[in-house]
Write a structure and sequence with these properties.
single chain, 206 residues, alpha/beta, DHBP synthase, 10-stranded mixed sheet, two-stranded antiparallel ribbon, 12 strands, globular
């Protein structure tokens, strides 16, 4: 099933359709500000396992969550320093993944012995609107493939995702072509903050 949304996620009926799929334990492919991502409800353990299978990554590999706004970060994390919070407040929404200590509402299957979790509040409206409508974070993992040279690439086309993964997904949310550049990943669990990957987001503050 394909659900088409414009970049502002202005079609309320279609947004509701997508979040209904999520609430029932479904797995979607959704556009973000760094290509498309597999996404599911934080509260669905079976959907999270399906997401790991789709990503074909070990269960020890931490996943990220997408929040609707910065104010929700405190609910899903443990300790966040004042400097870390001010930094996120300044840069989010935006193309960043911030590594923070996971709070008790994050299922242990998502971080195992590691207590960190990736936090995203994308600039893209569609994922934030879905999280807001659902009332909970979306667990997400980037949709990637490899080219003929064996290089890993982000998948940015909903049609390609539907062709490749259609039977394994409950729906593809088509928000148009995305950007192939990844998010900038910054570890905020210690000081000084550590840039783990430089992507779209500026690293001047770090």
């Amino acid at each position: 099933m394909r659900i088409e949304l414009d970049e502002w996620a202005s079609q309320g009926r279609e947004v509701h359709k997508a979040t209904t799929v999520l609430a029932k334990g479904g797995v979607l492919a959704i556009p973000t500000d760094s290509g498309y991502a597999f996404a599911c409800d934080l509260n669905s353990g079976k959907a999270i396992e399906r997401l790991y299978d789709l990503k074909q990554s070990p269960r020890s590999h931490p996943l990220s969550i997408i929040l609707s706004d910065v104010d929700a970060i405190g609910r899903y994390t443990s300790y966040v320093s004042s400097l870390a919070y001010r930094t996120m407040k300044r840069l989010l929404p935006g193309p960043y993944t911030f590594i923070l200590e996971a709070g008790p509402e994050i299922p242990k299957r998502m971080h195992k012995k590691r207590r960190e979790i990736g936090i995203r509040v994308p600039m893209a409206e569609i994922p934030r609107r879905l999280a807001e409508e659902l009332g909970r974070p979306l667990v997400c993992a980037s949709v990637r493939t490899t080219n003929d040279e064996g290089e890993e690439m982000f998948v940015i086309d909903a049609v390609e995702i539907e062709d490749r993964y259609g039977p394994k997904l409950d729906a593809v949310v088509d928000g148009g072509r995305g950007l192939a550049n990844p998010t900038t990943v910054v570890d905020l669990t210690g000081q000084p903050f550590e840039v783990l990957r430089e992507g779209q987001g500026s690293v001047e503050l770090f």
